[in-house]
Amino acid sequence: MRLGFHLSIAGGYTRALDQALALGCQALQIFLQNPRSWKWREPAPRDIRQFIQARHRSGLGPLVVHLGYLPNLAAAEPGLYRLSVTRLHGELALARDLEADYLAVHPGHGVPGPASLARVARALAQAVAAVPPPPLLLLENTAGQGRELGWRVGHLKDIMALSGVPLGLCLDTSHAFAAGYDLASAGGAGRLLGEIAAGLGLDRLKILHLNDSKGALASRLDRHMHLGLGAIGLPGFRQFFSHPGLKAEAAIMETPRRHQADEWRNLITARSLLSGQALLPGPW
What we know:
The chain is α/β, with parallel strands linked by helices.
């Protein structure tokens, strides 16, 4: 399994590649636009070519793109729904132009129930019809804050079935724990991965978002923490990575960043977990 971080595109897409190489990453996740704005900035064709060439030279992969924060694919309000679907189409097309492998999306916010799930499925189906894979769209599980959909595996299963198009899974460990999947307990990883196997199929699990949880079990709080220093802890992560059904292509960390040393420490911890070595958390 390859390791990487979500890194900033401030200064350009190629700048994110430079950061990834400086950290020693093998994989990379980025936003394509300002994630907190609807404003669209069209990259120059030259910048796209330079990014593709630099990525090929670097050997970094997979490249994961994450949809911004504002689109809500479950929105009941027609104007917001149209805006969200249009933004998804635009980011998926740009991800294709950049030769990304995956685009991760949250299901969105809405009244729990079939109508909300159907809206998400319809949006995804329209996007895939317009821009067939690659990149493959990945549904990401959520912590269940507020009216977030997708905090249970069953939500994601229903959306995928309703969409009728090829979709994959991005599994966030912090979100799963906050949603009530006890990855810190003995057998917790087996129960979660078993539910995925029975509902979606483990072959759909392409990418991990590897984050510890600042929030407690079933807190429904989306609060990421450094690996081994949150409520999941290193024993929980060691159990998770020892599960034979876990065959994701890459683990992307979205851990807090005060200094580059935080990322180096998380990367060292992740490598130790993958190798099965014991590592005790020290002072940060």
